[in-house]
Specification:
By secondary structure, the chain is α+β, with helices and mostly antiparallel strands. Among the domains are: about 150 residues, FAD/NAD(P)-binding domain, CATH 3.50.50; about 80 residues, D-Amino Acid Oxidase, subunit A, domain 2 (D-Amino Acid Oxidase, Chain A, domain 2), CATH 3.30.9.10. Helix content is about 25%, strand content about 30%. The chain is built from seven helices and 20 strands. Strand 19 and strand 20 form a beta hairpin. Helix 1 runs parallel beside helix 5. It is globular. The relative contact order is 0.19. Bound molecules: flavin-adenine dinucleotide. Flavin-adenine dinucleotide (FAD) binds next to helix 1, strand 2, helix 2, strand 10 and strand 14. The site of flavin-adenine dinucleotide has 41 residues, from helix 1, strand 2, helix 2, strand 10 and strand 14.
């Protein structure tokens, strides 16, 4: 690799890496992009839902309006007929008890919830759902095809080269160890495995998530159903169903236990015919504060990091990438709320 001909090295072929490559290359920078090509990443596993209202108490997602506006613009600009990215949907949230209905109704009529949440409705139209009291509608919601974000960037700027980050600036490229010279800026967008590199002490608490891909003719293709599981339309009669989460096992392979728990839950709460056609697994790069961060890696000059996208990469990544790139290109200060928290 002729490092001296480069303005930037980006390591990580997921959502954060791809959007960084696109923004820096579009600004005329000569960028080399690397990935370890392991076949597993959070980006290729996640459903990519941008959901403004989350959790049992129906909380408004942190700074969602800012993140959403920027994400929609970024994905609109990037998508094409070959690589569609944005899918407009809504979520039907199963309210299992009168207490859930009450919590839902407490939010109605109040900004910013009134932009998205509507009166609970009877589950009659979805008679295949079991043990549901009422359904809450969240609308609009977008699903981001995160794999197509990576594909679209690869089509514009070329696929990532094969390279494995071994130390903060140390690479294994096709079996040859190479050190990136100190004057070339590097962006580490490697998600959770960055923790294993050089024993970096980053404020991350990654956790594994698994999902099944199923084929079914009994489910609606225009709505996400969130009742004990999330059932997300993936086009045609294919649906993503998840998740099974683990904090202790951070292996990247899907497990029989994950398969079993998801199918058991699906069988209990959904009276549908279906066939399992795939299983995916990835490690969410969650931070201890549950907030994303960008900035220079302490003790490693010219080495930058974007991480902590956690469960919300689809909405968070575009603005976080812009923040880092504005800093690299224009020297714009990184706002405090987007800086790396103390380790
Ligand atoms: C089950 C599940 C469901 C999810 N659902 C949603 C959802 O509905 N909505 C949402 O917004 N988000 C969701 N997410 C989270 C979302 O997927 C992540 O926030 C986002 O993809 C993180 O992107 P990233 O680029 O930071 O990391 P990753 O996608 O993990 O990408 C990191 C890349 O770096 C590469 N890499 C790692 N280590 C090295 C190394 N040493 N050398 C070279 N390359 C390396 C990897 O191969 C990978 O390509 C979900 C995640 C999971 C697991």
């Amino acid at each position: 690799m002729n490092w001296d001909e480069l303005d930037l090295v980006v390591i990580g072929g997921g959502l954060a890496g791809a959007l960084t490559v696109d923004r820096m290359s579009s600004s005329g920078k000569r960028v080399a992009w690397f990935d370890r090509h392991s076949g597993s990443s959070s980006t290729l596993t996640g459903a990519g839902i941008m959901n403004p209202i989350t959790g049992r108490k129906f909380v408004y997602s942190w700074l969602f309006d800012r993140f959403e506006a920027h994400a929609l613009q970024t994905y609109q600009d990037l998508q094409s007929d070959l690589h569609p990215i944005l899918h407009r949907l809504c979520i039907l949230k199963g309210l299992a008890t009168p207490g859930d209905v009450n919590n839902w109704c407490l939010r109605l009529g109040e900004a910013p919830f009134d932009r998205y949440m509507q009166e609970p409705q009877s589950p009659e139209g979805l008679s295949f759902l079991r043990e549901v009291h009422q359904l809450g509608l969240i609308d609009p919601v977008y699903r981001v095809d995160m794999a197509n974000v990576v594909e679209s960037v690869a089509a514009k700027w070329g696929r990532p080269h094969h390279g494995i980050l071994m130390g903060a600036r140390q690479m294994d490229i096709k079996g040859k160890s190479e050190r990136i010279p100190d004057h070339v800026p590097v962006v580490l967008a490697t998600g959770s495995p960055v923790q294993k590199v050089d024993r970096l002490d980053l404020p991350l608490t990654p956790y594994q998530g698994q999902a099944l891909l199923i084929s079914s003719m009994d489910l609606p293709s225009d709505r996400i159903i969130h009742h004990k599981l999330k059932v997300v339309p993936y086009g045609g009669d294919t649906f993503w169903v998840g998740t099974f989460d683990q904090w202790d096992d951070l292996s990247e392979q899907p497990t029989d236990e994950g398969h079993h728990v998801i199918t058991e839950t699906l069988n209990r709460y959904f009276d549908i015919n279906y066939e399992v056609i795939g299983q995916v697994s990835g490690i969410r790069p969650a931070s201890r504060t549950r907030r994303p961060f960008v900035g220079e890696l302490p003790g490693n000059p010219q080495t930058f990091i974007i991480n902590g996208l956690g469960t919300k990469g689809a909405s968070l990544a575009p603005l976080m990438v812009k923040t880092l790139c504005d800093f690299l290109l224009l020297g714009v200060e990184i706002p405090n709320e987007f800086m790396m928290p103390a380790g």
